[in-house]
Each structure stands twice: as C-alpha cells, then as structure tokens.
Write a structure and sequence with these properties.
Structural class: mainly alpha
Shape: rod-shaped
Largest sheet: none
Order of helices and strands: HHHHH
Number of strands: 0
Length: 146
C-alpha cells in the first residue's frame, strides 16, 4: 500500500510537470488517501503488538512518527482552478481572437497592395480598434457582443 501511495505521488508530480493539473491533483489526493490508510494500519499494528506483550518493531514506530508529520501537512485546495470546460472555452475564445486579428492583418496588407497606403489608413485604424476591443473583452473574460 505504501508503494501504491508513492506511485500515485510520482504520477501526480509527472502530470503536474506536463500541465495536467486536474489529473495531478486527483493522483496526489489518491496517494494521500492511501498513505493515510497505510498509516492507520501501521498504528493499529503497533498497538496490537504492544498489547500482545511482544516488543514493538522499530519500523512501525518510525512510520508512526512520519505519519503524524504527514498528517500535519495542510491539504491543497483545487477549488480555485478552472474546470476543464472553462479551460476549453477560454482556449476557444483565444483561438477566435487570434484568428480575427490575423484576418484583419491580412485584409490590411491586401488593401495596401491593391489600393495604396493612404486609402487603407481608415480601415487599419478601425481594425486596430477592433483588436483592442477584443483584447479588453478577453481581459475581463467576457465574449464581445456584436
């Protein structure tokens, strides 16, 4: 059981390094639960060996000491992290914003090549204003309404 707890902690660390924070949090929580169950069983084993008259083994005593220390570690809350749905919506909004900005830049370049710089100046200013509105809407995480 201790090996499984360590395995889940390692999986959580690797997942966190790869950016899968939700999976990492779940893996660490499972590892913590397994560690707590292991520590409870180690304490029970230690107490049973005391009551049976045998001298307690050193390993359960050491595990008990580390277990008390592990239980004192505060648990991390994942409540403030956005859900997968919210992350997907944000990624979609970002892709839409970048696509609009790219299309506007292409229109500006095309207009300059066909009509010249002076005739396209007003369109360029309009496109820059639209890009700024999109950036501001993204900053407050609200989609722009047309």
């Amino acid at each position: 059981m201790l090996r499984a707890a360590i395995l889940f902690f390692v999986i959580g660390l690797v997942a966190m390094l790869l950016g899968a924070t939700g999976f990492a949090g779940l893996s660490v929580d499972i590892g913590k639960t397994l560690l707590i169950v292991f520590l409870i069983l180690a304490v029970l084993s230690f107490l049973v060996s005391l009551f049976q008259g045998r001298s307690p083994k050193v390993l359960p005593a050491i595990l008990l000491a580390f277990g008390v220390g592990a239980l004192a570690i505060p648990q991390q809350s994942y409540a403030n992290e956005p859900s997968v749905t919210e992350q997907a919506k944000e990624a979609g909004r970002d892709v839409k914003k970048v696509t609009k900005k790219t299309v506007r830049n292409v229109k500006d370049k095309t207009c300059e090549m066909v009509n010249g710089k002076m005739e396209c100046a007003v369109k360029k200013v309009k496109h820059k204003a639209e890009n700024a509105v999109d950036e501001a809407a993204d900053a407050v995480n609200e989609p722009k309404t047309n």
